[in-house]
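Give me structure tokens for this 276-residue protein.
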Amino acid sequence: MTTQPVTTQQAGEPAIRVRGLEKSYKEVRVLRGVDFEVARGSIFALLGSNGAGKTTVVRILSTLLKPDAGTASVNGLDVAAQASEVRASISLTGQFAAVDEILSGRENLVLVARLRHLKDPGTIADDLLERFALTEAAGRKVSTYSGGMRRRLDIAMSLIGNPPVIFLDEPTTGLDPQARIEVWQAVRELAGHGTTVLLTTQYLEEAEQLAGQIAILHGGQIIVTGTLAELRQLLPPAEVEYVEKQPTLEDIFFAITGSDRAGSSDSALARQPATS
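Here you go.
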């Protein structure tokens, strides 16, 4: 599946442009003039602690919330003046998977495709199930899915209609290490197909693993933006000490579980019994 084509004018602009966003809740100033841009077809991580304002930014960009000041455009469309057009060109996946547990994975996808009045919803569902390594679990009720499978299905559902921009708000919250890696693979898959991804996260490793550009949101403002290599240059190099390298907890976890940290086979993951 491919994303919707963009116009020549849109192609020359960033997928997302934010200038001077401000937002307060009563006396609490959550955003104090936020500025950043996201290139088309890239993964951009908005990194910050709980309460930093990450979700507020996403809600403004997805037209669910109006800013007190500043401007923002998504896919070349002004989020305030062209809200309906913005909503038609984006998809939003929240912190918790929005799937119907009574239905099967395939039924969830078909339902969304029908609600969007798309032709051949069955083919759309089957293509997405294969793309996200859920084909073998397609007929099972979602209530039997593991956390990683549910989140992959949730992301697949958000892609129905081929939105060029997708917002993932804390996509791995509450997931175990293996499920988190499954979701990381799904996110990389999005960018590989040309989708622009804005990812909010509080996990440093998640931003490091996925994002081409990272913006750190702190105190209601973006305090630094850049690639991982550029951010590393902000700190002096550490002194090299020749000591025996001890295995990390990640090394130990994957060695003991026998799992391939690169993901091994997604189809194998889909065949595993569901966890509660």
